[in-house]
Design goal:
mainly alpha; 5 helices
Amino acid sequence: MKRSPALINLSREHHTALVLALRIARAVDPETMAELLVSVPAIFRDEVDAHFQREEDELLPKMAAAGATAMVERTLAEHREMRNLVARMNAGDVRAMKPFGAMLKAHVQFEERELFVTAETILPATCLERHD
């Protein structure tokens, strides 16, 4: 799918999230789960949460202003829930891992199939551009 140049970096970052979700889905043995319990929160902090923050700072306010409030609220709620699951993993709760992985995959699919498509439809290209 051809993505707006202004959203291409956010879209590319989804690859990291999908790889992480796949690693979690495939993990079954206790040793792998223990390794993931350490690595997933670090990957989330360094890559995924930074991605969430960019969306929350740059994209979502523009979408809310353009009237996509339900979609923005859903995105923010999912970000919060995934942050909560990662906090549980940080506290040693391995039971939070599988729900986190499933939610991460579903969230990326939602963003690619709905959120970004809507952003490209309702926001002018100049509005999507980053102004660093």
